[in-house]
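Figure 2 data, in text form.
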Amino acid sequence: LGGNRPLPGCEPLAQAYAGHQFGGFAPQLGDGRALLLGEVVDTDGARRDLQLKGSGRTLFSRGGDGKSALGPVIREYIVSEAMAALGVPTTRALAAVATGENVIRPEGPLRGGVFTRVAASHIRVGTFEYFGARNDIDALRLLADHAIARHYSEAAEAPYPYVALLESVADAQADLIAQWMSLGFIHGVMNTDNTAISGETIDYGPSAFMDVFHSQRVFSSIDSGARYAWGNQPDIGLWNLTRFAETLLPLLSEDPSKATKIAEAALSGYPERFGGQYIARFRAKLGLPPEAPIELIKECLDLLGAQEVDFTLFFRNLTRVAGGEDCKTLSAMFSSREPFETWFTKWRAEANPVKHVAKMRAANPTLIPRNHRVEQAIQSAYRGDCAPFPRLVDALAAPYADQVEYADLETPPRPEEIIHETFCGT
């Protein structure tokens, strides 16, 4: 797990892929600090990829050392395992290893680490783009057939398997992004090389969960145009899927015009699919029955943004009110009480707390991997104290439970603890 010697029988390799990064196309990227060890079949019969990150140079390192500092290793471990506990499709963490050597970064020497990732696969939109950019139709067909067999076997039985593949990937991304947004999660680097065909969340470099809500909240230090802000994620998802569809055009029809129309039709269901999932998840968070007006959702988020209210804490306190507690703690979160009271009165009239409180508890976590807590665990590890890291992981394993022993991890950051930016681990 430190990457010092291969596992018996494995033939490690670095994968090639391309990608649109912040809208600009790079025809060759690839695993610059990652190494695929191989595939294993898990106890449920599912096939999984095992990959090392930070184990050294590869053919795609582009002048880099191929290594990782311990901080990005800890961040991906914490956030990916928290996402799994929250019920979000995600790659998983198998191990975090300190290498015992330093890596040199602009801020100076940092303790090195290696991360072992488990994924349904590492096939990305960018993997398809790599062969699309080379107009290698045979490779695209082989890759598409492999993706169908690996992830969407039902598509193989469809009248048009490649159309079914496109529709399946689009549905998976719509569902995933709706779930991200319902938890206040910002991926931070939704490039096409970070869009997994499987529908799992992949790559947690500059990702973060919001504290104070704002629809245009950004954490990535290089996303100066807010391309990947919280509220832009659905549109970016469709943009990425359109790039995926472009690679499949030669497989959809020999007639380019007909292929384009087929692809457009396949993607036309994405907005409705995303919208349905988004509304359903926020209805659950607010305890709203199906007949309640969806305007209550938008009004709620507008209110949170206008008064700079903590996203996770608001929904958990609302859940406690639905469970019978008084609303003093909830109302105290608002600097201007009148707008809150107006919305709260509407919510009271439309919601059915007694009937829906169980759904609210299952939709509104008490604990998320707050950015300042992740950063504290990272900085402690750099100083040689790794204790906060497993404690945070243990706490986040039951995010919907009230855990008295971890109550300190629920609180938003104090002003001096706020993390305004996160960085890609390279």
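Caption note: The chain has 14 helices and nine strands.
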